[in-house]
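Fold this sequence, please.
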Amino acid sequence: MNRYCFLLRVRPDRLEEYRERHAHVWPDMLRALAAAGWHNYSIFAADDGLLVGYVEADDLAAAQAAMARTDVNARWQAEMAPFFTGLDGRAPDEGFLLLRPVFHLDDQLRAHEGGPDDHDVGR
């Protein structure tokens, strides 16, 4: 399972409503995300409207394409679009900035299992 992190920006004057809407996402939308291969999906919000999203998927592009084929996603994206800035006409689920991973603790621990390396603490 691959991990993905992305950024979006919500208009600060709409942030509270955005939070409220995400406290009660439509059940059909939740089921569609799960069926499309979105796992462990979380969104975090800063007070200035910066959103950080995290999702796990076998293939994010395939998971996005599967969502694009659903009616519920089209309705959700249309309702959510006015909340965002910087989308340049794209739907929110197409306009996010995907971040490149630089560190993951579990990956590095697995890579170093079986012996100490030059930077072990307490050697």
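The mean pLDDT is 92. The beta strands are 2-10, 39-45, 50-57, 84-85, 97-99.
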